Fold this protein.
Amino acid sequence: MLIHVGFSADPDDAFMYWGVASGTVDRRGYEFEPVIEDIQTLNEWALQGKLEVTAMSLATLPHVAGRYVLLPHGASMGSGYGPIVVAREPLSHDELRQTEIAVPGELTTAYMVLRLVLGDFPHRELRFDEILPAVAAGDVAAGLLIHEGQLTYGDSGLVKCVDLGEWWLLETGLPLPLGVNTIRRDLGPQVMRDVSAILRESIDAAFENRDEALHYALGFGRGMDAERGDTFVGMYVNELTCDFGDEGRQAVRELLHRAGHSTQIQFVE
């Protein structure tokens, strides 16, 4: 059986997939084909049920919970850090509410959380890797950065105005769940369990072969150097990536509750 695995074009997702990509883990007779896209595209595809396995923003999951089940691993969570709003000069929350902010998509968790912080604000959707240069060039006043832009924004002379992970930790004491991995329900319970186990082993294999997995992952870092790439992967591939655990599940429930989603989220067990 062919399983398409959608993941976003960034180093942490690639790091987690290394065990499958390298053939290190036993694929149990399944074929895996990676499908690499920006997270907003993956979110939109999830609404259509296009891929058997896909990363998506947690904010998208309630809209597709009838079709996809949450895998208990592969999530990107930050404790005290997360997506950031940057500008060419410091802007207060009040000023940001009156400022057009470039966002990586209305289906992203980053956008959902920023609305919890600011309420409604003027915004423009841009592909995630176009936001930092647009702010630096003055094409937009502020931008919401995900992925490696959280580490590289200073190179462009920009300043951080809001850190969503920091805000969330102060609000709740919990890590901020951003991206999650999911599997389509129509594959059936046995296939879902098999694929879940394989992908969990892929993460374990990456930890056990960190240098090789990091080398693979840096190919998705858009020029990020090895030191920053290692830092970024360390930020978002952690114990909670291996398993949500009680804390991660509580964080998921709390964030979706605060965002007004009452959908019960099911995990593959």
Q: What stands out?
A: The mean pLDDT is 93. The first strand starts at residue 2 and ends at 8. Residues 189-208 form the longest helix (20 residues). The domain at 2-77+177-258 is CATH 3.40.190.10 (D-Maltodextrin-Binding Protein; domain 2).
